[in-house]
UniProtKB/TrEMBL annotation:
Protein name per its UniProtKB record: F-box domain-containing protein
ARM repeats mapped onto the chain: 466-508, 507-553, 552-583, 598-640, 639-684, 683-725
Coiled coil ranges: none
F-box domain sequence ranges: 33-79
Organism: Anisodus acutangulus
A Pfam family the protein falls into: F-box-like
InterPro entries: ARM-like (IPR011989), ARM-type_fold (IPR016024), Armadillo (IPR000225), F-box_dom (IPR001810), Leu-rich_rpt_Cys-con_subtyp (IPR006553), LRR_dom_sf (IPR032675)
SUPFAM superfamilies named among the record's database cross-references: ARM repeat, RNI-like
Residue spans crossing the bilayer: none
Keyword annotations of the record: Repeat
PROSITE patterns listed in its UniProt record: ARM_REPEAT, FBOX
Amino acid sequence: MNRRVRRKLTRRGQEKVDCPEVDGCLALDEKGIVDWTRLPDDTVIQLFSCLNYRDRASLSSTCRTWRTLGESPCLWQVLDIRPHKCDSAAAVSLAPRCRNLQKLRFRGAESADAIIQLQAKSLCEISGDYCRKITDATLSVIAARHESLESLQLGPDFCERISSYAIKAIAICCPQLRRLRLSGIREVDGDAINALARHCRDLVDIGLIDCLNVDEVALGNVLSLRFLSVAGTTNMKWSLALQNWSKLPNLTGLDVSRTDIIPNVVLRLFSSSPCLKILCALYCPGLEQDAAFVFNNNHKGKLLLSFFTDIFKEVASLFVDTTNNERSVFVEWRNLKTKDRQMDDVMNWLEWILSHSLLRIAESNPQGLDNFWLRQGAYLLLSLMRSTQEEVQERAATGLATFVVIDDENASIHGGRAEAVMRDGCIGLLLNLARSWREVVQTEAAKAIANLSVNANIAKAVAEEGGISILANLARSMNRLVAEEAAGGLWNLSVGEEHKAAIAEAGGAKALVDLIFKWSITGGEGVLERAAGALANLAADDKCSIEVATVGGVRALVKLAQNCKAEGVQEQAARALANLAAHGDSNSNNAAVGQEAGALEALVQLTRSPHDGVRQEAAGALWNLSFDDRNREAIAEAGGVEALVALAHSCSNASPGLQERAAGALWGLSVSEANSIAIGREGGVAPLIALARSDAEDVHETAAGALWNLAFNAGNAFRIVEEGGVPALVHLCSSSISKMARFMAALALAYMFDGRMDEVALVGASSDSNSKSVNLDGARRMALKNIEAFILAFSDPQAFSVAAASSVPAALTQVTQAARIHEAGHLRCSGAEIGRFVTMLRNSSSILKACASFALLQFTIPGGRHAQHHVRLLQNSGSSRILRAAAAAATAPIEAKIFARIVLRNLEHHQIESST
């Protein structure tokens, strides 16, 4: 194949990439298949230029030819190693490719130490993030090895270990330096700045940001200076700054944002600095609190960018003849066909300092800025996200992710700011940035989408614009930070019921499960917590829970519960398992979780965690799992009884959520009489009584349910009396807001005093001398009195009289509707329990008869979840005769007779329905 190769320059951002131009084609073989390893060299290089560095390295291993092409200098003029771990070994392996490297971005002290190994002597630009641990020695060596350096930027975090010594070394070693931006240095003394003035004659841009002390006098000696930023720098002596900076012959832009500058200094700088055009003073209280200065907009052609000025209008005044829409000034400048080099320098500097200050201000989240953010801040960040400067793009996206958050701990965002973001069209732009091949940009865009998606309207907009598929794809990234933020986005989106199915359809569940398997070994607590949290939300939906289980979610989550020690990961893994197990009536996930090796043991162990959130979710998972008979016994075998009793003991002062789930798990286990006896022997009665006294309605229900199950056993019933449980149950029965809690408290009291406990009371519940003395007769009278009051609360004398005198079905229906407790239809009783209520219909106590018939009414009402099950148990026990006798008994209370008639009618209804 003959082809000519012409070189051309393609633009990516601001840098030029020298790439071959394709002039030829690749033929198919006889089978119509392309052999990719035989692509023209220029095509391969062009393909490589579109990939991130990890993918370039992967493709380079395809064959020898591609390995050679993958080392082409045009592919390695710009290198961003921030998304990757770069130690000395990695740098040595990269060195052969980096001989012509022009621009380098890195992250952290380890990467800084490794830069030297790249041997990129012609390096012009270095930019570093997270430089807190970088020392003078490291920075001095970097400067000594890169004499051609024109730009050095370290920040935005503080460079605490860098001193004036390193700045002097930079000045001596890098005479071609044009830009120096450093953050958080304790002191920049006069010797260091004077060294820059002497040796770096082309230095036009200095940023000494968030520093503690800067020599104002020495800065006046850097005569080449055009742009200066001292944003956030404290201890400024403004009289010295005014005296020396006003003499700088070329100073065009000055950034004093987040400082204590005062109006008089600003006015004198404007009047005495001949070339000064722009002064940026965002969040300077000394200016903003001076009403006279705020309303004085006449600065004689000088631009003041502040919270009280229209920033877009100020910037637009630089383009009097070319700007039609002030709000679009940044876009229109980028689209200008005729470029002005000096104006481009001004605008690029403006974008950089604005993005930096807005991010810093968003991070500190000071009060009183809502008007600024809503009026122009949100749109300003949107404009900066369109910048061709990668750093500006990233910081603007991070700023968007940050300024909407009010409470990071509780994931609360500012509604008005979120609406401003959506109004200004940021969502589509963020999604476009998320498609970038630059992994750092992907990370920041995904983070912004994740934070904004806490707002339901924005979450809807993200979904409608295809954001779910984008996030699902990013969750498959090999870069942990990208995957982490994408998982966070899916987590927040999955809160909405309307988005769960879309996430599953986009392959989100599979991507999240794969994330857990990928990162659970090497460790990545952030990505694991977010992936597990998203899966937990998906698992709350019946259909999505099936998808989660199908793609391996059960095994992945159990693995996390077993092996991960991070509190947040444990909590979300347990919550996800709890939600998977919550659909026992509609799918097999409950049983699947219980059958997964080590699952129950891991959850039992998590109930002993020192963290309430972990214990709460683990107890909730065990509660849901206990609805399966096999799981219930397996939990007990795994030590669940002892662990949950201990949990109930320890949570008397805990959150209502933990109390509810601790009592609920014991309620679920106590369905088995063997477990119920074990709970009583382990001391589970006393903490359940304590929980029954809780102020929370949900805790009332679960504690009452557990005590109801325990009271079925005569020994446990006596323990409840011994531990003072009768007053607690009486209080629930009479005073709880929850009808269910009152109902189950009444049933527990009925179990305790239907006569079966009397034999136990005679011999004592225990053989030792520590048995507490109790007044059974007094407790019985109190219990029966309150059971009667509970039953009467559901009776209408007039409706009962009509029902007693009439055989019309409508009369019984009216009584049923008044007496029905809808939640009681979810309760499932065993044959022994149904048999006990039937036996209670023959009890000598009219109150217990009424209670038994009332309970059977609740359990057999058509439409109840387990009504047919209870009807079959009644039919198999031959209870119809006893019910008829109760309905016809002359001495029985009218409530008992009417309720018995209704139960008989329910049996007939189910029988007719079954035959039909």
